[in-house]
Amino acid sequence: MPVNPPSQRLLFGTDGVRGVANADLDVDLTVGLARAVGEMFEGGVVILGRDTRRSGLMLFSALQAGFHSVGVETRDAGVIPVGAVSALVNRFGADLGVMISASHNPAPDNGIKFLDAEGAKLDDDQEARIEARLAEGSPWRTPTGAEIGTGVVLEDAGDIYMDILRSQTNVSLEGMKLALDCANGAAHQVAPRLFESLGADVKPFFVDPDGLNINHRCGATSPETLASQVEAQGRIGFCFDGDADRLIAVDEEGRVANGDVIMAVIARHLHHRGDLVGNRMVTTVMSNLGLRRSMEEVGIELVVTRVGDRYVLEAMRSHGAILGGEQSGHVIQLDRGSTGDGLLTALRLLEVMVQTEQPLCDLRRAAITEFPQVLVNLEVRSKDLSQAPGVKKAVRDAEAELGEQGRVLVRASGTEPLVRVMVEAPTKDAACLIADRIARVVRQELGDLP
User: d(Cα 302, Cα 279) in Å, to the nearest integer?
Assistant: First the structure.
């Protein structure tokens, strides 16, 4: 489908609740969310994690107060990747996990991601129920005395998480030279420690968070920063985002390997070994046409869903797939975890390299030939593409022009005030021309921001 409709949900986007901290996402809203979620899950225990944003402690305190007020116990895992929160939910048998992070967004933004008892993101129905309860407001459940929730700090949360990750891989990284871009975010402590503990020679970058520099010209959305270092030092690079659920790699030649490349390498390796359960993989409409052709070449079924790793997970479960993800670097491995985890993905990629005895640059060349792709992000007054017939016509015209040699997708972002125009074509110049043409129509019909 060339044009995606905007989300119909009022509060939740494709990745939890997100907005400018203390403005869109303030203390009152956060307390109300915790109460609504706590009531829905009828008490129990919740694991709380956060990234390094200045607003994180404020929102943590508000969540903790809201949960305690409805009788929910909290466990503070501190600054830690979202994959760790998911793993800790499973390890401790908690009823819920919460990550305070706006992922790849800039420091003024923040967000709240809710994970269920399996460590996976809540589905649309659960989020709709939370919104409905929040809209009702008082009266809330008000326990007293010993029934009020209390909090405990998990002092060794990072160590437990690393133990879980190490238990899922049997490879030694002795002799591996790695460069890690931790985005001044949630992985800044645990990622270097993890890979060093497995024997790798690690050069860490962007591991000095100050509350305001998270994702600033670094991390998974700015892999070119690390690429220049990798090429000069002959290292393999791994770029994480603010909550480390994404991984973008950089090969030994300094070339960026996005989620499509990573999934192609892993999927073909698992297929070759007979370990790709169901012989299928799930990806989204944003994935490169080259990934689709790579999977067709070796007979792997590719299931395509809408953007959002939550929808990837739903499709994986319904189709019996163990591998799925997004071009942006979210990769889910259901044989090892229940949510996107950049560190877990990096370990899997290194495992492929060790088992094949091939460098990442050679693995990617054998696995996928990417079509030139152009992505234009447009800040507009309205994201309602249903009210933009001219955009639909521009997309149809471009598709007719490209035929089987390219692809066009126009969609509203689920997490930001943007309309995204993506074009794939035989050449970069052709993709740019078509993307610019469609972008002009988007601006005309939906309006630039002032």
Answer: 9
Cβ atoms of residues 249 and 240 within 8 Å? no
DSSP letter at 371 equals P
Which helix (H) or strand (E) segment is 290 a member of?
Answer: helix 289-298
Q: Which are the catalytic amino acids?
A: 103
The closest of 412, 257, 408, 230 to 331, measured between CA atoms, is: 257
Average pLDDT over residues 234-245: 95
Alpha-carbon gap, residue 187 to 109, rounded angstroms: 18
Summarised one tens digit per residue, pLDDT across range 401-412 is 998 889 999 988
Residue 192: both structure tokens together: 């270097």
Angle at 282 between CA 364 and CA 219, to 5 degrees: 55
Distance, C-alpha 311 to centroid of its chain: 12
Q: How many CB atoms lie within 10 A of CB 133?
A: 18
What tens digit of pLDDT does each residue of 123-170 get? 889 999 999 999 999 999 999 999 999 999 999 999 999 999 999 987
pLDDT-derived band at 221 (thresholds 50, 70, 90) equals very high
pLDDT of the residue at 118: 94
Partners of 238 in the β-ladder:
180, 249
Q: Judging by beta carbons within 10 Å of its beta carbon (0-12, 13-18, 19+), is residue 25 exposed, middle or buried? A: buried
pLDDT at 414 over 80: no
Mark 240-277 as b/e (b = at least 16 C-beta within 10 Å).
Answer: bbbbbbbbbbbbbebbbbbbbbbbbbbbbbbbeeeebe
Q: Are 448 and 380 in contact (CB under 8 A)?
A: yes
Q: Pull the structure tokens for residue 295.
A: 């999977």
Q: What is the mean pLDDT of residues 90-103?
A: 96
Phi first, then psi, for residue 403 (nearest 5°) are 60, -130
pLDDT of residue 6: 33
What count of Cα atoms within 13 Å lies in the side-chain half-sphere of residue 6? 19
What is the C-alpha to C-alpha distance for residues 9 and 414, in angstroms, rounded to an integer? 10
Residues 6+ apart with CB under 8 A from 91: 160, 164
CA distance 46 to 75: 6
Burial class (CB in 10 A: 0-12, 13-18, 19+), 40: middle
Confidence tier at 307 by pLDDT (50, 70, 90) = confident
How does the average pLDDT of the chain come out, rounded?
A: 93
Q: Mark residue 177 as left, alpha or beta (left: phi above 0; alpha: psi -120 to 50; beta: remaining).
A: beta
